[in-house]
Write a structure and sequence with these properties.
This protein has 411 residues and is mostly helical. Helices cover 78% and strands 0% of the residues. It is globular and about 55 Å long. The protein starts with 8 loop residues before the first helix and ends in a 21-residue tail after the last helix.
Length: 411
């Protein structure tokens, strides 16, 4: 008698029928992936913390410092959609813990790098770890989301927001005090993350792939024509561009703006930046669930255009008004990204990894390029003039007019 070999996890997912379990939200998996997102983004944000020490020890120019950032940004952004595309065609659950080991290797190399080429190697390894982590972990959040994809993306992304906010604090308390070698201590956190992601990858293999396919089959709407779906992706990328160019002006130069215009101390300006980042985290938490409840289009209209009047007021406000205005801007703008990611995944449901990698990679790249361009402009015309210019970026939210209509129940 002929024997029948058991299906692979990918084949099982492809033949799985929609089940009631696919509509359930697996909160434990989402919390786990969010915690690892916190660790990942905190480790990534430690790289700029060693720039002053590297500049002194290796006598680096601003151009050489910029090249370190460029190497990191290229590996952390351009590789993401490629990795997402490969994962869509051939799922690789073990990529999650393996990607974390790249970050550990990057920090370890940076902790002992006393020649320039080793610094570049460490930055590249750190970027590779991030490029592997983001598309696959976003896909896991989608797998575990059930009927609440917006909530899952928000919870996943707020982990990254928290990690980015904790990174400068960790740098101030540890790296500044103990020096470059202290990065090796943070590299050990990668082992904790790898252990968590190992268990997540097992769930991914045995349950996640089947849930992802079952969720697609459970959709009650007809997929959009390919042309409309691609137009929607292009519009959403335009919204990411407007959002991250403006956010780059705040995350990179807000402290300089406050010090120059209002003569705050460095500590006072850093506290103001912390308040802004806290508002960004709150907006990230709110954006996804609001999209689940009211529809992605409404959230996108509000989150992009809603920030415009506050952005226009910010360059003309007194210090007393600058803080609340910046917090409102951060809150509103940050609510967009979870809705954007879920909207894009709904437009291309068979390419969740590719879409996640494309949008996370594009956001990374736009943020880095935007910060460089705004810094160059600030050198030429002053930081206050730059804030007056970028205040109009949220007006690109009018691109929402071209978004395809997606049934609210499907979104």
């Amino acid at each position: 008698m002929a024997t029948i070999s058991p299906p692979t996890p990918g084949e099982a997912a492809a033949t799985a029928a929609p089940t009631p379990d696919a509509a359930k939200t697996v909160l434990g998996i989402i919390v786990a992936i969010s915690a690892c997102h916190l660790i990942n983004d905190m480790m990534q944000s430690l790289l700029p913390a060693i720039y002053p020490g590297l500049a002194r020890e290796l006598s680096l120019s601003f151009g050489q410092i910029g090249l370190i950032t460029l190497v990191y940004q290229i590996t952390a952004s351009i590789l993401q959609p490629i990795i997402g595309l490969v994962a869509d065609k051939k799922p690789a659950p073990l990529a999650l813990p393996i990607g974390t080991l790249f970050s550990m290797a990057g920090l370890t190399v940076l902790s002992v790098a006393h020649v320039y080429w080793l610094v570049l190697l460490g930055a590249a390894l750190l970027g590779m770890g991030s490029s592997i982590f983001h598309p696959e972990s976003s896909r896991v959040a989608r797998m575990a989301s059930g009927s609440r994809p917006g909530f899952a993306q928000s919870l996943f992304q707020v982990g990254g927001n928290a990690g980015s906010a904790l990174g400068p604090l960790a740098a101030a308390l540890v790296v500044v005090r103990w020096g470059q070698t202290s990065l090796a201590f943070f590299a050990l956190l990668s082992l904790l993350s790898a252990a968590i992601l190992w268990n997540v990858s097992r769930w991914y293999k045995h349950h996640g792939l089947a849930r992802l396919q079952a969720g697609r089959k459970a959709r009650k709407t007809t997929p959009l024509p390919q042309g409309k779906a691609r137009l929607g992706i292009a519009v959403l990328l335009g919204l990411v561009f407007s959002k991250y160019i403006y956010l780059a002006s705040l995350t990179s130069f807000y402290t300089f703006y406050l010090i120059e215009k209002f003569h705050l101390s460095v500590a006072q300006a850093q506290f103001q930046l912390f308040l802004f980042l806290a508002a960004v985290a709150a907006g990230t938490v709110a954006g996804g669930p609001l999209g689940d409840r009211f529809g992605r289009n409404y959230v996108l209209w509000f989150s992009i255009l809603g920030a415009l009047p506050f952005a226009l007021l910010l360059p003309h406000a007194s210090l007393a008004w600058t803080t609340p205005l910046a917090m409102v801007i951060g809150l509103i703008l940050a609510s967009a990204f979870p809705a954007i990611i879920v909207f894009a995944q709904e437009l291309m449901p068979d390419h969740v990894g590719t879409v996640s990698g494309l949008f996370f990679g594009f956001a990374f790249g736009v943020g880095g390029i935007g910060a460089a361009a705004l810094g160059w402009a600030a050198d030429k015309v002053g930081i206050e003039a730059v804030y007056q210019w970028v205040a109009f970026m949220p007006a690109l939210g009018m691109l929402c007019l071209f978004l395809p209509k997606v049934d609210r129940a499907a979104a």
